[in-house]
Amino acid sequence: MPSQPTVTTVQAAPWEEVARWGNGANGLLFNSPNGIAIDAADHVYTTEFRGDRVRKFSSDGELLAEWGSLGSEPGQMNSPTGIAVGPDGRIYVAESGGHRVQVFSSDGMLLDSWGALGNGPGEFASAMTVALDDDMRVYVSDWGNNRVQVFDSAGRFLHQIGAAGTGSGKMTNPTGVAIGPEGDLWVTDRGNSRIQRFGRDGTFVQLWTRAGQGLFRSPTNIAFDKDGNWWVSEFEGNRVRQFSPEGDLLSELAPGTFRGPHGLLFDGTGALYVADTMNGVVRKFRPTT
Questions:
Q1: pLDDT one-digit tens code per residue, 231-288
Q2: pTM of the full predicted structure?
């Protein structure tokens, strides 16, 4: 049976916004920021869905590098959405329009690429987000094929998780993938308005739903804080919310201020970054206590 998180009066999360990038300050603008990744030095990487590029920032918001342009040639991009930094420091980018994964060095040199449009192993119908575990397995949400594909670090297909449907372990337009504190896989099953959790071997473990009661509205991405709480961005819900490790709703971040948020991630200091996509900014938060 699906887990039913406790829903109580939602309090605003005791966090404050400490920075906002892309609002025109220093001439910096975003064109639909989507994915967020952070490396071991707390450099922040973003994808731009409509800008067809990756940007690299210091934790203070200084633009350090950018690469990519619209196209299908190596190193070019078509609607990049997901981004992740591997344990080896390489940058993995999922292209929803290019139906592939490209791998770059931290300064934008193309190192590898795999994928094409299709529904076979290693093919995608919009590669949406990407995550890596400690064993360098690469997890890619395959939106149109209603599955998550798993690869080794060289791009060799290993297996898939999920298939089209509404039952436990099935998916409809999966969007976000993340590795949880215990090394398991978490998926935002956007089309079914729920969160699913899978073991390291791909077996279904648990799901959280109650979409009909307004718990999730198009969940897009998920991230974990140092206490194991999970935070979910909701594109149609225009919000970011915090849940306990057991799935109880705890708080909402900056209520009423988001428009179509996507990527979110914590850095090594505990700061939370959110790609506020429809507002065209990346926002940085810190706890007030």
A1: 999 999 999 999 999 999 999 999 999 999 999 999 999 999 999 999 999 999 999 9
A2: 0.94
Tokens at residue 90, please? 């390489």
Reported CATH class of domain 11-287: mainly beta
Contacts of 24 (CB under 8 A, 6+ apart): none
Tell me the C-alpha distance between 141 and 87, whole Å: 19
DSSP label at residue 152: -
Percent of the chain with pLDDT over 90: 90
Torsions phi, psi of 32, nearest 5?
Answer: 60, 70
Q: How far apart are CA 203 and CA 258, in angstroms?
A: 34
Task: Output phi, psi for 265, to 5 deg.
Answer: -165, 150
Residue pointed to by tokens 């071991």: 40
Pairing outcome for strands 281-287 and 261-266? unpaired
* Best CA proximity match to 234, nearest among 210, 196, 263, 271: 263
Confidence check: pLDDT of 211 > 60 = no
For residue 180, give every residue at least 6 positions away whose Cβ sits within 8 Å of its Cβ, in sequence order, or none.
186, 197, 224, 230
Using CA atoms, how far residue 127 sits from 6, 123, 144, 272, 287, in Å, is 33, 9, 8, 24, 33
For residue 138, give the nearest of 119, 124, 157 by alpha carbon: 157
Every domain of the chain and the residues it spans: 11-287
Q: Cβ(269)–Cβ(242) under 8 Å?
A: no
